[in-house]
Sequence to fold (162 residues):
Amino acid sequence: MKQILIIRHAKSSWALAGQEDFDRPLNDRGQRDAPMMARRMLDKGVSIHAFVSSTANRAITTAGYFAETYGVSKKDIRGIKKLYHAYPSVFYEVINKLEDTISTVALFAHNPGITMFVNELTQTRIDDMPTCGIFAIQADISNWKDFEDGNKTFWFFDYPKL
Fold:
């Protein structure tokens, strides 16, 4: 059994006019929501064995809050640039390359691709993945390369305002 937490980055700031989208930081709400959601996962007893993130500032910062909560060095977050505004095919490609020793992974990315991706996985659908939302899946597989075609079950959905 493999588990994946698909997490949209926390709320980002639009305060600096002309700032590149890739470089936008978290705003105050995002800085509160990310550690709160990480603690919520820890309190639920959800183990996370690997952290994989888009390298965009708001995503990698969100991943950093989760890693810190789980006692993992931010240096151990796997930054993958192509997760920035990725289509579902990229998510599958990234997951396909995970080491099979990893049981549960937290994957941090962006809309609209993250919503498209989660809606492909099970019969559970969402209209729009909220910021710092977590869509969790359990897959009846032993190897990550089998994730795309493997039997997947909706585990839970959580977000800051829930």
